[in-house]
## 1
Amino acid sequence: MITEIRKIDKNQIDREAMSWAGEIIRQGGLVAFPTETVYGLGADARNASAAKKIYEAKGRPSDNPLIVHIAEYQSLSELAKEVTPEARLLAETFWPGPLTLIVKKNDTVPNETTGGLDTVAVRMPDHSVALELIRQGGGYIAAPSANTSGKPSPTRAEHVAFDLDGKIPLILDGGPVGVGIESTIVDLTGDCPMILRPGYITREMLAEVIGDVKVDPALAAADSVEKPRAPGMKYRHYAPQAELVLVDGDPERVVDKINELADTAIAAGWKVGIIGTDETILRYSRGETVSIGTRRDEDGIAQNLYRILREFDDRKVDKIYSECFSDLRIGQAVMNRLLKAAAFHIVEV
Ligand code: TXA
Ligand code: MG
């Protein structure tokens, strides 16, 4: 299959290209598209065989459910068994935006879309290209991140092309995304709302709107006996090819430790990458050093994370040593991705 890449200006949408993209979706095909978080790989959410194609293209385990993307508030009630007051409040406050709600599904949502679960994940993305594709494609687009399963999520159309070239007919190129990490997922089907995946919308932001919000205890540690409630969170994920090691603690000691680990690895013949910040980067003088941005611009750090992991893959680095970002507002979400990419390998100094 030839993969076409079409540039779409999000401020001046090419109607003809979008109606073609919508046609592909309505006929059961796949289209990759930009959202404000990461690029998605879309198919008609109400067409079971279209949803199956997503799993094939990504090499994704079929028990890992998909998020259904909508463009109208009304569409939530077409998918959900019931829209609770909490769901309505969160949708009104944060949609369009990087928040996914898990609700009980009704019979119009095929099991292929939800990995056999009786719940469905729904979000309204904040991106004009995504919203137009949803409208043109019939109103309901199932889409995971548009990467090969297990790889870092794509934040640019080039990343999608690298992973999926020849496997899908069309990539809509809307340029680099804004947020850079996937949406916050909150499960509204239990006694208390629970965050299953941290993201740009934090627990505090949710709590301001609906009161008490829990965090899935399984997110806390690698050796947790808890089983993550979002099936996708159990896989090694977001991972670069290199071995990633995180170093946390007093900033001075972190720099020294990373330099020491890098020296040892280089002496052993490995190609080394280092992820620092604008504040520290000049103090790393060996290996391939990259700044993820300044600690004063935490949104920028989230935006750069996946691109940097992919660039280290391109450079065929064997080991990556990275600083940690737990103290930032969005740090919980960034650390969640880094810890998974590092398979929870963290050195405390
Ligand atoms: O920002 C995003 O959410 C991006 C863009 C494309 O919208 N999408 C995304 O999709 O990250 P994906 O498939 O890579 O991650 C979806 C996560 C998986 O961990 C999956 O297990 C979980 O959502 N999930 C989906 N439906 C669920 C359900 N009914 N119950 C629990 N977890 C669910
Ligand atoms: Mg994903």
## 2
Amino acid sequence: MTPATPIRSIAPDDPDAPALIEAAAMLRAGGLVAFPTETVYGLGADATNPEAVARIFLAKGRPSTNPLIVHADGPDLARRCVSVWPEAAETLARHFWPGPLTLVLPRSPLIPDIVTGGRDTVGVRVPDVGVARALIERVGRPLAAPSANRSNRISPTRAEHVSRDLDGRIDLILDAGPTAVGLESTVLDLTSKPPRILRPGPIDADQLAAVLGVPVLSSVSSESLPLADRAAASPGLMAIHYAPRTPAIRLEPGSPPPAIPAETSVALIVFGPLAPELGSLRPSLRIDLPDPARASRTLYDSLHCCDASGASLIIVRMPPDHPSWAAVRDRLQRATTVPEPPLPARPLT
Ligand code: TXA
Ligand code: MG
């Protein structure tokens, strides 16, 4: 079937591609365009146009309280989106932009209420893909862009993932191939002291602390905090998020798999050698993501593959609880559920 939303191929670094000119015109007219970033595909709208931004929430089915990240083509435009630009922002922007780091700062009047869900702060970042920055430059305004998926679904790392979720609901998809990083940006709150990570991502607390020369809290993302508390700080951290369509359960290292009916076709995702306790599983699909970098890049693609494989259950054997796996564990915690414990045997009466 021909997709209702056109998909235009584009080289990741061609600032004059005809598709880019078409996309910029659509955005200036209040349209919605999915575009590549180094993390995941974003669903862009003119951040200064409240009607255009409202269409993002509608297309995604996203709660209006969940704020959007604003994308700039460089630090100058990012600074116009905020009312305070502390030394720490300057240092981090110099070091990590363009790149997968979102800075949460007090917002400026350029950014309407709808973008931030009424909050007085805004998340800003500069994406590390040439066409994304060229697009923003052509539009001449910052772009509000959440991940280009239906709310609570897996983020898209390829144009076809966007099309599968949002075909007919948006105006255009720019396809520059699979994204290089594959997990959403680290979200860092610079309004709190010390700075605090709201969403773990490709850049971790140690890297940020090393550049800033002050400690950086990752407490909000800590697995020990109830998910509800994390969600209060950053609504995108709701318990169920990034979920595949197929039921998906997670097993911590050392936990045996639950009893699975013989007719169940299982897709298995492991992070390293197959643990002996999983030896009895006969998965129809097995995906091995041996190290954090590879796992970040292909986690969402792997979950999309499991969904497309026809498996009726996804089993994820969690990677170790180690800082290098924090972002991957964070996403998996929300993409999966803990298997129900077996019912206790009822005494015969
Ligand atoms: O890598 C990314 O960040 C991708 C690409 C497209 O740039 N975008 C992305 O956007 O993941 P989205 O909307 O799917 O996730 C945005 C996250 C949510 O967890 C949201 O709650 C948080 O950022 N966020 C945005 N603005 C915020 C603010 N002012 N305060 C607290 N959290 C905020
Ligand atoms: Mg998202």
